């Protein structure tokens, strides 16, 4: 254990670093380089200390006008936390904003530190304006993750950054499955050590608070963004009506014509029609003109982001991370195949694709063979939902090249559709872990959930994950947080489930139609195996009961995807409903949020609490009961 003297020293140093970046002493951490405390000896793991300061500043990320955003250490998009597998992380947050906040470490299992999961009202109290908080956890699993706010929808305002945990040398890599040539394998290993996380996200000219305000005033499920950002900046493109028609899904286009609207809006969006919002009283007079119908057009002063690569290595490793508010994104690179080698931080059996889907909350790691012309090759990113035609661009530059390629070979168009039917798409649900991981062949308990809009008398933007109740955003202010309560006193409800430690648990999610859309679901605390999916309802009480009634191969217990963020199945054929089944082992006791990662759906109620391992409930340290993770001051 740390000595009181060492903690006092750490706290003293921390207090000196509370001010804004410009006024802090040089010893404070405000860059991508974390400070490794080499003084730690014996059996204790190395400690990586990482500090961020949060402020609100103005930014014009897409050249269409400035808006407020959240800056981390005076930068838009936070610095990357680099650590080694097994390191202990001390992550300090200084809140200089005029609003409460918190930080969640997306994909980090928190197996022995559930009080550092960062969900206000559930695992901690809010970090108040002017306050600091110390998150303390161990990097048990290697891979690429990210930290982001879990307060309100602050992620839509830019509060996020990457977490890269380097694997141990003995960890088996799947690179020999990409190429049998030893030189290629060595080059890929070198490229992995230089892997860069690249954030791709949707972006609105409205702050998250303004965005939700429009929803409330107009009583609509607001879904129309302004641009796609790559690493924090991008452009707004205004297409002609003919161009939008060419890229609009034929079914959507036909519906618009039947409803006398004819086309997408100038911003490429489905207008807020009654048919798509449901049976609610809409107040469309409260929708600003800029929300749907006016496309300004513009470009960030920095232009499109450039991903520089060194062709002498032979390969490049990139991990695409989507922290966006609404949209899953399709991504391709002109003239290059993408060799997917990890998903959500987990190595997978490699898949070669022309286009990859990066869902909200997902991380897709790819190897790229650098064997093309030394030029600037276009990276294309586009919304995958049918509701809006929206694209963005970056450039992959060989050796600092400034020229465009002589003969570019695009894989997708502006709307993200493949140029050729012979090209291959990748979705995370196609992956299988490497080395192989298998779930139990049966579950100890099953919970069935139903994802849909709440309907009347609720509002058009309110959702449920359980069938009839929404998880109210006001739970962020619950005090004391649920983790600190006596778990025996917490009742089992539609929104609160309990499991026993070591149990295998099935979650069956039925997505209700009509227009059953895919929802990116994220369970805190652990990854899950996606064992099956299908169209129609799921009338059975368990997967075991369903197996004899469904076609052979419906369920996969041998090599299913292993993910921390997975998509439910969208509408298939004529069936209104779809279902998705996942299985996990409740091996880490704690209070875990399970929710849709679309920010407007979460704020609208699509979430619930899973209390895993109630028979082995953790004792929360005093530092996290009363002192925001810091040791209480020593009294003489």
Short synopsis of the structure:
The protein is mainly β and 636 residues long. It has ten helices and 34 strands. Helices cover 12% and strands 31% of the residues.
Question: Layout of helices and strands, plus pairs?
Answer:
Elements: H1 4-16, E1 35-37, E2 47-59, E3 67-72, E4 81-84, E5 88-95, E6 103-106, E7 132-138, E8 143-149, E9 160-166, H2 182-193, E10 196-203, H3 208-218, E11 227-230, E12 233-236, H4 241-247, H5 250-258, H6 274-277, H7 289-292, E13 298-299, E14 305-309, E15 315-321, E16 329-333, E17 338-343, E18 346-353, E19 355-358, E20 363-369, E21 376-383, E22 391-398, E23 425-426, E24 445-453, E25 463-464, E26 496-498, E27 504-511, E28 520-523, E29 528-535, H8 543-546, E30 562-563, E31 565-567, E32 578-585, E33 590-596, H9 599-603, E34 607-612, H10 622-626
Parallel strand pairs: 2-5, 4-9, 10-15, 14-22, 19-23, 24-27, 26-34
Antiparallel strand pairs: 1-2, 2-3, 5-7, 6-8, 8-9, 10-11, 11-12, 12-13, 15-20, 16-19, 16-21, 17-18, 17-20, 21-22, 24-25, 27-32, 28-31, 28-33, 29-30, 29-32, 33-34
